[in-house]
Amino acid sequence: MRVLILSVTTGGGHNAAADSIEAEFIRRRELGEDIDVFKEDFFQYINKFFYDVMDKGYLFVTRYFPALFGKSYDTLESAENLRKAALALSGSEFLVDRFSHYFRGDMPDVILTTHVFCTLTLNDLKARGLIRCPVIGVMTDYCIHPYWEDCDFMDYLVIADELFSGAAVARGIPERKLLPLGIPVRPKFLHREDKRGARLALGLDPDQTTVLVMGGSMGYGNIPETCESILNLDRDYQVAAICGKNEKTVKELQKISNTNLFPIGYANNVELYMDAADCIVTKPGGLTCTELLVKNLPAILVNPIPGPESRNI
Questions:
Q1: Phi/psi of residue 193, each to 5°?
Q2: Residue 185 CB-half CA count within 13 A
Q3: What is the pLDDT of residues 12-27, one digit of tens each?
Q4: What region does 216 belong to: left with phi over 0, alpha with psi -120 to 50, or beta?
Q5: Are residues 202 and 273 in contact, defined by beta-carbon separation less than 8 angstroms?
Q6: Span 101-115, pLDDT tens digits
């Protein structure tokens, strides 16, 4: 079986979900199943300039104009005519034409996508008869994003829970297409280390109450202010602050003179920090919420990006 997984770099959650799915297929291949799996970043394949614009544009708008982003999301969610007009102006025909070249080789047996933008393009290609295999969308938030209802040729949509079936049907997605399988997380989040062992492994005080502060892969929110507020409480806490790709915030944290503060940039062992923590203060990204639920970690959810993340709360 040939499996193609498509993701989009707008925040880290979509790629993390794609990585999780890929890891499971690789695990099954190692157990002897006949599986070839390929993962692509949709925008990077289309055009490097397009990729940079989408990646940096998403970061810029959500960071500096979050209210505008939230209002646009609400409008696209509720106004079908505006949603279709926005799609027509988005350069979708260019995406369809460019990505059609991908399928001039061997056709995969199934395509999984973790972002609706990918699915819209695949939907158009299926409508034109250029894709003949099943296309499965995978939700990465606790809501039904705008445009999923416009993917008429999508075969299935994986949703976070069967409780979202009603919302999906109300938006026009046939119930027979819904698979309430949950949001995928990487296998390493399914295992748990004891707190003391995790703290020792990370260089933290093994006996001190630990708060983990995160702002998603992009380091959203005023993380230094959050950390200082926690450290100024009348309790003896240590704070591990993961800032993702936000190097500026890491440098700001390094200027704070407090031995109970541990600034971290991008971390590929977030699961171990979750095991070490007694509580997490975090932006409510869909993958982050799922990971902390899997870890059974108490959470304070702050600084949501208006739209999907306010719905995650």
A1: -95, 155
A2: 20
A3: 788 899 999 999 999 9
A4: left
A5: yes
A6: 888 778 899 999 999
Tens digit of each residue's pLDDT (9 = 90 or more) over 36-87: 999 998 877 777 666 666 667 777 777 777 888 888 888 888 777 777 777 7
Residue 255, token pair as written in the block: 């200027």
Average pLDDT, the chain: 89
Please give the average per-residue pLDDT across 216-244, as a whole number.
89
**Beta-carbon neighbour count of residue 50 at 10 Å?**
17
For residue 7, give the H/E element and its range: strand 2-7
- Alpha carbon separation from 201 to 145, 198, 206 (Å, rounded): 39, 5, 9
Q: Tell which residue, 218, 273, 278, has the closest CA to residue 249.
A: 218
Q: Please, is 310 exposed, middle or buried when counting C-beta atoms within 10 Å of its C-beta (0-12, 13-18, 19+)?
A: middle
Distance, CA of 40 to CA of 294 (rounded, Å): 27
- pTM of the entire predicted model: 0.88
Amino acid 33 reads E
- Beta-carbon contacts of 156 under 8 Å, excluding residues fewer than 6 positions away, are 134, 136, 137, 177, 178, 179
Cα–Cα distance for residue pair 91/107, rounded to 1 Å: 25
Residue 18 region by backbone torsions, left for phi larger than 0, else alpha for psi between -120 and 50, else beta: alpha
Which tokens is 199 given?
């703290």
Strand partners, 36: 2
Of the candidates 135, 152, 270, the one whose C-alpha atom is nearest the C-alpha of residue 213 is 270
- Strands 210-214 and 156-158 come out as unpaired
